[in-house]
Amino acid sequence: MSIRITSHWLIVLTPVFFLPIVMDGGTCLPDALRNAVYITVLLQLLVILPHEFGHIVMSRCFGIKRGTLFIGGIIGGWLPDDDYGFDRLTTGRRIAIFAAGPAINFMVAILCAILHNRWHLHASSLLSIAEINVFSGLLNLIPIFPLDGGRIFRELLVIIGVKTSQHLTYVRFAAAVSGLGWMLLILKHGHWTDWFTWLLVTIAALYLLMDRNVLYYEKPRNHRRTWNSRY
């Protein structure tokens, strides 16, 4: 299987996101920065990469042999190459590919819980990894495009027979309601950095959805298809 790995230089700034959270406990800046780097690496290796690995494995099961893996610090992405037929997969198989990432997060969480209960290996670390994986899995299922939940929601519109011309309206509405609802929840119970992150996610989702074609953009840029050619 051919996988092209890419990232953005802004990945080096990812620990800055965790600094306010770490420093809330009164940790000095050098220690806080070191802890923020540690959290970033741990998050990438034990949460994000397993999530993307799930997408890759499921894509491979359906004959998608090539694509691009994006590494972004606290985010990641898997973009199958449509030369190998992603755009021609059935709706059910596309949903399976999108759902595979969160499924792997839940599996990692279960594995951590088993290790904790049976051998008590680094109990606090295992439970933290399990909690973060559960949180990541659930978060990715929120119907905000282009998260997995938003893509699954788009495919469900096909299954229930919603007209193609109405898809964009429904997906925009789901993204706006889900994003703003989550922000209100975080405003009451979370940290301000979480709230700011979801503000950016919601804005980015709605900005992407200004382009009708983005709903059916699952492949490298030189393989774009027009809106009407998708169905």
Q: What this model shows, in words?
A:
The protein is mainly α and 231 residues long. The protein has 2 domains: 1-141, no CATH class; 143-231, no CATH class. The chain has helices at 14-23, 29-61, 91-119, 123-140, 148-159, 164-189, 192-208; strands at 2-7, 66-71, 76-80. It has a 3-stranded mixed sheet, covered by helices on one side. Helix 5 (148-159) packs antiparallel against helix 6. The radius of gyration is 19 Å and the shape is globular. It starts with a strand and ends in a 23-residue tail after the last helix.
Gist?
It is built from seven helices and three strands; from the N terminus they run βααββααααα. By secondary structure, it is mostly helical.
SSE-based structural type: mainly alpha
Oligomer: single chain
Strand order of the largest sheet: 1-2-3
Tally of structural domains: 2
Q: Give, in order, the helices and strands.
A: EHHEEHHHHH
- In whole angstroms, how far apart are the ends? 28 Å
The best one-word shape is: globular
Q: How does the major sheet shape up?
A: 3 strands, mixed
**Share of helical residues:** 55-70%
Number of helices: 7
Low-pLDDT ranges? 219-231
Beta content comes to: 5-15%
Q: What's the alpha carbon Rg, rounded to whole Å? A: 19 Å
**Could you give the count of β-strands?**
3
- Averaging pLDDT over every residue, what do you get? 80
What keywords describe this structure?
231 residues; mainly alpha; 2 domains; 7 helices; 3 strands; 63% helix; globular
Topology:
Blueprint: E1 2-7, H1 14-23, H2 29-61, E2 66-71, E3 76-80, H3 91-119, H4 123-140, H5 148-159, H6 164-189, H7 192-208
Helix pairs in contact: 1-2, 2-3, 2-4, 3-4, 3-5, 5-6, 6-7
